[in-house]
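Supplementary notes for students who missed Thursday's class. We covered one full example, reproduced here. Read the sequence, then the structure, then the short commentary at the end.
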Amino acid sequence: MRRSFSLLFGLFLGVALVLSLGAPAYAKEKKAKAAAAAKEDRLSGVVHMINKDTSTITIRRGNVQRQVVYGPDTKYTYRNAASTMDEVKEGRRVICLGKFNEKTQLVATRIDVREGK
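Structure (token representation):
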């Protein structure tokens, strides 16, 4: 009886030790995955073309052109102050933040307009 109690107690302590050592590692891994999911994708370049019918902006960086989709929830800044879509003009440099969709277009949550090229 005493031997089985000791064995059961030892098994309990072993399980408790494994769980206590594994929990912080699991929490750290979960936090890292959440941070990676929250991080937004980024595109920057010069505005090449604006199509208001399809709500897209084509930006160019070197020879590469990418499309950015904007919508009513997109936030705009110009000179570090809140702005509107009216400040996004051809030839201006922009930094766009958001997530890529299945068409490899960036769906923008924020567009920062910079001075010139």
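Commentary. The first strand starts at residue 41 and ends at 51. The chain has two domains: 1-39, 41-113. If anything here is unclear, bring it to office hours.
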